User: Which sequence fits this backbone?
């Protein structure tokens, strides 16, 4: 084979995990936003790969600097707005045809301290990290088209009853007994695609985030579940029913198995009271719930993994 | 050297990370406790090591089974009470002279769902994991004496102002500029030693836990800090002032550095608004705050590492 | 919106991280293979999601059992062959239209012990884990077409010289100085796509694996690098030049920055001798190197993330 | 309680995880050493805690700078020698009465490339990270006395036969069947204490490291094991028999359980051929093997955790 038979295929490069903390100190009540930003650029970078010619390669260090400078110049209102600022900036460069930008956003709550009358009040500049879940945002720009995703990772939930699993096919390798009552537990990771025509400036991404999280928690709690898949679908359907701006919502949900411990060797019954929480293996569900008339937009998703 | 010149020194063995989830289903409002329990035994196990004679070795699998059986037989009221049950059980065996038992306890909150009148209410059997911190308990029994520790790990806090650092000695290798205003951030890990005479049955370990956590958060928020050490001491002093049953409280606190980004190359000022959150290296503080008249009880602490 | 406007989009489900260790004991010289296998099925599972009807849902527990049973019945010759066995088995079911199967394979080496004449020899049944990298395999079956990938993750390499970076564009946010001599370090993750017509039974996947690893290491060492991209491309080109059966090879390579420490405040020069190894941020490169005439097979890649 | 009843107990502070990479470029064959260094100081720091007076507090940033400056000024011959340099430097300060210094050392191997005659040769400046284990060193200085430990973490080994476990006591909670043939697997973490009179300058710490690692691997392979404890002791005894400079060696060894999968539901036998590698729980052994006449030196160990 001659080397002329080999070509550069799809490629992107950038700076990953730029940790930027932005404090708004305009009033004594400080605001805090805490992001982990990655910026990946696409374009005609062929010569960098084949001959080491970096003429078109915006240094990844420059991408990092831009994140910090923009945090000062423009502030950070929401992760989604900040990624749009970055993506639109970089795609103005002649070298850049598109890219992918992501952010993790770490939620912080104000520490509660005693107020004048002894009641608790939120402190002005002291915070405790929530960690319940990590908020995410992701932006693809390709051929001048923007695809914007909101989301969150690893919201861990468990219900001690109200979950069944039965009716599945039995083959030579099936040993699982059917159950009408089990623990169901998962770490909910989800991303939602904003409809193509969404006006970002007019969109309250924080409010949508809070709304989606609450809907997903409610559905998990309230649906009597015949399978984790059914719960997933109910959550997606409820989100689409409530939030006009979302056209497709996808989930990655492990089934965090809790095994009923056999206590009969010790002369004890165990009516779903004592469980062993397993690590591996675990069930795993990936699915999209979408509007029937939503356009196909695979570019929004395919580079993320796990959501296809 | 002949092998008779070699002896077995200190030793212990057991089962680590037994994941036990206990559901109380006595009423439709289920209770959930979620622990990671380890059990390590000490005793005269010399022959196991030197000749492979296991006559005295309570199998680690038996220790695991005991955890699950006790969860059913006795329930789990608090991590501290459960460790006392285990420790007292195992030290009844002739083979066992003492041991160390630990638990991590993962906090879960009830999911909020709409109530009859539209207001939110706590769901009966659906939970979301808090993750703000991990609660810990540790018990040493040696020579018939019990040493019981409560605690928590990795409560992450940050204040955007109200922290200084100056006045330190300058030597050839000092370059750090003094500062009157910086971000202070840490992951608080702490363990507290219950006084020797504590009556475990009469002690509300859950209430003490909640109280210590709130005091530590408040002190972090309210103390104008001249160093992370000063904040640590203030937290310890406040805990000892409020909780009679604690005689020694120790902290492991990293200083999670947040660096002010130099934006001057871009013609921008940065008056403590944009920070880079660093990973490594980080400052690290370990210290004990104790009652002046507390007895010396090194056995409670020395096997845990980081707290000496 | 009525719920009839909502549909189930792409979906898959299965069992993740089935840890299977297979020992071949046919002779006193035991063979060991250590895999982490995941199995994800696709098909018409709509009713499971929308109504909780599990009639077509092959339980994930059954998938797990199949992994273990097949390990006994068929043995595990290579990760690639084992995934083909699993994928072809599951896609025989009427319910299943396709799926994705992955394996991590952990390399073990025989422990060296003294032989009869004092020289070291490989022990028959005692092993030490290599950990230098993790071998991977991935199989997509969709519409009756198989896409098979070999690969490895996190082969960490570093060169102390022979790496430059200069000639990149300078904009308002550029501060990086050009360099003719730097440390270059990365964790090489790569996957390679076997050509569509590959006869799996006739292919020595272990030999190809060893060959690709050696080529990639050599190119990293021998290429005087003007950018990490150039090194990546050289490695891909060399692999395609040497291994006929591969038609597309993709890389994910972070640029693990090593910063020259400024020792001038201490009156010391630092001619690239003392470095701080950074954690975050890091550069990141994703790229494909492929044969010019290779068919487009996005299904092989898009669900993996990071490789598009 | 008045605050005068509260005192500062044991305490230390410093800089953790200083990542220093040192390249020796004196010849074209570069040498590479890659450390993660922590420095913790003890002394009379009472006023820093109680009043925020930092007059005696050597800034943790200064400690970090010292690590980098010393790497240039003195080079890094071995982790042990480097810690001695640091510890002796800091304890010269009037403020400092002692401290603890630790290092992780990451092994790198030279990449093998084709030589002139086609045979493989070691490259001059290109390396691949070994990862088989992490080398460690730890130094305590207290009251003018030095305690120096060598060691390594997480050397993962497995034997497919030659391991039994039986003869243990049976109580109400015992269900484990006895076995004459099982997989034994562990991650060996060990630290060894150099005898008090050891002349560090005359000691070849690298040679001792290589020797201990080889002995431990050999004993694991060659001892027919009646328990993991027996294997541990045999390894310790062999090390003490071979290395005069070591007076006490301690191990932390999990028992990484491999469960024989029950294939009988599928009509298959499983004579120790197919195993499920478990995650949690796991057995855990900690023990010291020491010379009978070794002096008691608890200060060397107690702050490390897990080794007491």
Assistant:
């Amino acid at each position: 084979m001659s080397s002329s038979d080999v070509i550069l295929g799809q490629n992107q490069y950038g700076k990953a995990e730029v940790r930027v903390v932005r404090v708004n100190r305009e009033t004594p009540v400080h605001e805090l936003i805490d992001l982990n930003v990655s910026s990946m650029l696409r374009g005609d970078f062929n010569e960098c790969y084949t001959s080491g010619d970096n003429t078109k390669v915006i240094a990844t260090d420059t991408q990092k600097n831009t994140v910090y400078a923009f945090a000062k110049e423009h502030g950070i209102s929401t992760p989604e707005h900040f990624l749009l600022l970055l993506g639109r900036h970089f795609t103005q460069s002649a070298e850049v045809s598109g890219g992918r930008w992501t952010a993790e956003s770490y939620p912080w709550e104000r520490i509660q301290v005693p107020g004048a009358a002894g009641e608790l009040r939120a402190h002005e500049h002291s915070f405790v990290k929530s960690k319940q879940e990590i908020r995410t945002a992701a932006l693809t720009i390709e051929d001048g088209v923007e695809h914007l995703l909101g989301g969150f990772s690893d919201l861990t939930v468990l219900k001690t009853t109200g979950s069944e699993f039965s009716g599945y096919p039995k083959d030579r390798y099936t040993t699982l007994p059917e159950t009408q009552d089990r623990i169901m537990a998962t770490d909910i990771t989800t991303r939602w695609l904003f409809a193509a025509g969404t006006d970002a400036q007019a969109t309250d991404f924080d409010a949508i985030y809070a709304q989606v999280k609450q809907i997903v928690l409610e559905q998990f709690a309230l649906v009597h579940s015949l399978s984790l898949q059914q719960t997933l679908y109910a959550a997606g359907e409820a989100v689409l029913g409530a939030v006009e701006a979302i056209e497709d919502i996808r989930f990655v949900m492990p089934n965090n198995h809790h095994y009923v411990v056999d206590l009969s060797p010790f002369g004890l019954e165990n009516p779903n009271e004592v469980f062993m929480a397993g690590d591996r293996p675990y069930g795993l569900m990936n699915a999209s719930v979408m509007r029937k008339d939503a356009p196909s937009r695979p570019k929004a998703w395919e580079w993320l993994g796990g959501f296809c």
About this structure: Residues 154-308 of chain A form a domain with the Urate Oxidase fold (CATH 3.10.270.10). Chain A is about 20% helix and 40% strand. Chain A touches chain B through 61 residues (CB under 8 Å).
